[in-house]
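sorry for the late reply, my laptop died twice this morning and i had to redo everyting from scratch. anyway the thing you sent over, i finally got around to it. pasting the sequence first so we're on the same page, its 350 residues, then the predicted structure underneath. double check i copied it right bc i was rushing
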Amino acid sequence: MKLSQFKFALPKDLIAERPTTNRDGSRLMVLHRDTGKIEHKKFKDVLGYFGDGDVMIINDTKVFPARLYGNKEKTGAKIEVFLLRELNRETRLWDVLVDPARKIRIGNKLYFGEDDDALVAEVIDNTTSRGRTLRFLFDGEYEEFKRALETLGETPLPKYIKRKVEPEDEERYQTIFAKHIGAVAAPTAGLHFSKDLTKRLEIKGVEFVNVTLHVGLGTFRSVEVEDLTKHKMDSEEMVIPRTTIDTVNKAKDKKKHICSVGTTTMRAIETSVSTGGHLKEFSGWTNKFIFPPYDFTIATAMITNFHMPESTLLMQVCAFGGFENVMAAYKTAIKEKYRFLSYGDAMLII
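ok and here's the structure:
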């Protein structure tokens, strides 16, 4: 398929600036992929679609405060640094994005925080037009260094959210399942689950299992080629544990529903499939790009948010729900004023 086939006009007023008051209070569009039928529900109504022996697979990655604001040495120019990935724990090396990039050169020192307690970093390499490699000059223990980053860093809300970060974002831009720190963006489908709703699903016999995929900015990188086969995804670190394998494969053999909570979870489970069509343990990196047509092996259902036009996330959703079905559903979502993107409403494809 071609990039242009995933284009649509998204009204700016449908981009959610804030989360709903309650996690499970968002709207839920239910798309039946066999018929194309659409239902309009509340997210808590997901209870009615799953039962005993069904499995929900969630991504338990945890977002770290990846956005830092500081100053350049000598000139004092204000700079923004977005932490992408730790390259070397011992030498404090990090892959980052800088803004404005034209002012940040190899050898520059950057200062974060107040003078006496400032965290200092040196630019040691250029990686892309905005990408740099930084070495943080910190003599203390590693845990002290990480605490300094967490203190100075800010919750990395996406740039399309135009308001300033608020105190509630620290909690609401994490899922209730967040456990393993390493993501620079939230696995947003999981944001809709409250502790109460999760408990109610468990009482019905639904089992929750986890994968870990540390979401990077590459997930949201623009596709710049019309021919989708030529687009390359950035690699993201992921783990699928043995306990998840056993539960998912048992449910698959019993023909129970297996629901992927989010596109990152779907990428993870489709990365590691045996020749017999079962899930395998995995620890490593994935750059899997899913777009139509694609035959899914594990999931029978999917929960996701509403995504940007021409995004790899929309392409994956179209591959699962059917291109015509999903694009028609998005047209309906715009007409019915569903809220889009990270803090927006949800879609269940079943």
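The CA atoms of residues 221 and 324 lie 24 Å apart.
thats about all i looked at so far, will dig more tmrw
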